[in-house]
Amino acid sequence: MSSQSQLGVETSAPFQDPVHLVPRVATFLHTIWLRKTYPFANFGRRTSVDHSCDIRRSAAPFISLGDEVYLAQDIWLNIAAGSDGSDPKIVLGRGCKIGRRVMISSKNRIFLEADVLLSPSVLLMDHNHEFSNPNLPIYAQGVTAGGTITIERNCWLGYGAAVVCSHGTLTLGRNSVVGANAVVTSSFPPFSIIGGNPARLLKTYDQQEHRWMKSIEVNRDDEKQSGATGRAEEKTKPFSDIRFENS
Question: Measured between alpha carbons, how far is 91 from 150 in angstroms, rounded to an integer?
Answer without folding.
Answer: 10
